[in-house]
Amino acid sequence: MIITLSFYKRLPGLTGEQFSDHWRNVHGPLLRDTPDSRRYLRRYIQHHIRPNTAFDADPLPFDGFSEVWYDNIEQRKELFSLPVFKEVFIPDEEKFIDRSRTTVSMIDRQATIIGEHLAIGGETIRFF
After folding, report:
1. Percent helix, strand, coil in the chain (nearest 5)?
2. Which of 39, 72, 74, 79 is most buried, judged by most C-beta within 10 A?
3. Residue (of 46, 61, 81) closest to 9 by Cα position
4. Exposed, middle or buried, 16 (CB in 10 Å: 0-12/13-18/19+)?
5. 48-92: pLDDT as tens digits
């Protein structure tokens, strides 16, 4: 399993609400409803960031991030090489994302600690 974390900054001139609205109601459904992307994506999760005024802290340098899960790196490469990716998905991103400020990180395993157990790739390890 390959998980890509992409951190996005909205285009200058867009409000946080406009950015989130397009991402949630246009781009997300576009990915979800396109058979080519559904063939490659195992999971797609959007995380919309809102400023928290309860804390005296600097704002984060991005407006949201996504998790995109693939079976393997080859699946990601194949999706990125499709005409629909270049002709539909990228042009839509350019309507709301400042692509020059996008940062991408990739991990190949997800680990979750729950109580005394650690789950890695479907295998549970118990700590004593």
Report:
1. 35, 30, 35
2. 79
3. 61
4. middle
5. 998 776 777 777 889 999 999 999 999 999 999 999 999 999 999
**What does the mean pLDDT of the chain come to?**
87
What single letter denotes the amino acid at residue 24? R
Give 97's DSSP letter.
Answer: B
Q: Which residue type, as a one-letter code, is found at position 74?
A: E
Contact 67, 42 (CB under 8 A): no
* Helices and strands in the chain, H and E counts: 6, 7
* C-alpha span between 6 and 2 (Å, rounded): 13
pLDDT at 122: 60
pLDDT score, position 128: 41
Pair of tokens at residue 15: 């409000």
pLDDT, position 127 = 46
Residues 6 or more apart from 65 whose CB is under 8 A from it?
Answer: 5, 6, 7, 8, 47, 49
> What is the amino acid identity at position 83?
P
Closest CA to 88 of 23, 5, 25, 31: 31
